[in-house]
Specification:
Elements (H helix, E strand, L loop, with lengths): L7 E4 L5 H10 L1 E4 L5 H7 L5 E4 L7 H6 L5 E4 L9 H6 L3 E3 L6 H16 L2 H9 L17 E5 L3 H12 L3 E5 L5 H9 L2 E3 L2 H7 L2 E4 L13 H6 L5 E4 L8 H9 L5 E4 L17 E3 L8 H19 L8
Parallel strand pairs: 1-2, 1-3, 3-4, 4-5, 6-7, 6-9, 7-8, 9-10, 10-11, 11-12
Helix pairs in contact: 1-12, 5-7
The structure holds D-malate.
The site of D-malate (MLT) has 8 residues, from loops.
Length: 316
């Protein structure tokens, strides 16, 4: 049980340097980035608190090995890499840091969108090769077009605001409408639609939903077929929300116009999406801004302090 003694903390993904320094000032901190499951199982044996992001799987095996483990701090939003059921039965509390990265992720989604609709990455590549071919670049504008938001949490709500700023019509789909947020959506003029209606009417479909049993494979062949052939798909959530093979085929065959993907099933591997001209890829950097990482770092140290005081940090 938490007392006033220092904790043994294991950090397995990069967290802000200031947060690390604060943790180190009071606790014993072991940093081992991206360990294998076997390494993690042996490291975790005498650990009280695990700090992780999305890069490491925290399986039942890991939780079983963590004899003293009391708390997992997810230094980010998605908890899909943590076996939450196993954590619950092991009596390990899991907390995350929702909201802190919402603006950064929303801004990246717009960056990916503009990169796709205006051919920014392709253009940059050509200019660097000494090719100057304006006629290759007939883009489309966002103003007057429809932005379809799948997931209207912190990121989706911010995207709605930005989308309105671009002069877009904004529609959204959400599995369980949060009454508190309804007002905010209404403020940003978001019309709630069923998923099929959203897919059929949107020029841009942006995914920012957590990966859960409900959203796993949410966008597959028939959903992609329901989209306009001129539509662009943006995924800043998790690769698992979309069926990879089906998205690849839809993009290759021009059944949708393009995609901006910050998440890939093959994280760290190149993958075949790189073969396609109508796709812009980033290496899961939605939350990677100085502002956001500093905020998350603060929340991580706050969560550890609260835990030490015997308080339970709110989860999501
Ligand atoms: C998140 O869920 O917060 C993001 O995937 C970012 C991360 O953890 O690196």
């Amino acid at each position: 049980a938490p007392g006033d003694r220092a904790l043994r903390i294991l950090v397995v993904d990069p967290v802000h340097a200031e947060a690390l320094a604060r943790l180190r000032a009071e606790h014993e901190v072991v940093v081992r980035l991206q360990p294998s499951t076997a390494e993690l199982c042996s490291l975790i044996e005498d650990i009280d608190v695990l700090v992780a992001r999305s890069g490491v799987l925290i399986t039942e095996e890991v939780l079983d090995a963590g004899n003293r483990l009391q708390l997992i701090v997810r230094a980010g939003v998605g908890t899909d890499n943590v076996d939450l059921d196993a954590a619950r039965s092991a009596g390990v509390h899991v907390c995350n840091v929702p909201g802190a990265s919402a603006n950064a992720v929303a801004e990246l989604a717009i960056g990916l969108l503009l990169a796709v609709t205006r051919g920014i990455v392709r253009g940059d590549g050509q200019v660097r090769q000494g090719v100057w071919n304006k006629s290759d670049f007939e883009g489309t504008e966002l103003r007057g077009r429809t932005l379809g938001l799948v997931g209207l949490g912190n990121i989706g709500t911010r995207l709605a605001e930005i989308g309105r700023g671009f002069g877009m019509r904004v529609v959204g789909n959400v599995s369980s409408p949060d009454p508190v947020r309804r007002e905010k959506w209404a403020e940003h003029g978001v019309d709630l639609l069923s998923l099929p209606d959203l897919l059929a009417t949107s020029d841009v479909v942006s995914l920012q939903t957590p990966l859960t049993e409900l959203t796993h494979g949410l966008i597959g062949y028939s959903e992609l077929a329901a989209m306009k052939s001129s539509a662009v798909l943006i995924n800043v959530s998790r690769a698992g929300v979309v069926l990879d093979d089906e998205l690849f085929a839809a993009l290759r065959d021009g059944r949708i116009a393009g995609a901006g993907l910050d998440v890939l099933a093959t994280e760290s591997g190149l993958g075949r999406f790189a073969e396609l001209d109508n796709v812009v890829l980033t290496p899961h950097i939605g939350a990677m801004t100085e502002d956001t990482q500093r905020r998350i770092g603060q929340a991580v140290t706050d969560a550890v302090s609260a835990h030490l005081r015997g308080e339970q940090v709110e989860n999501r």
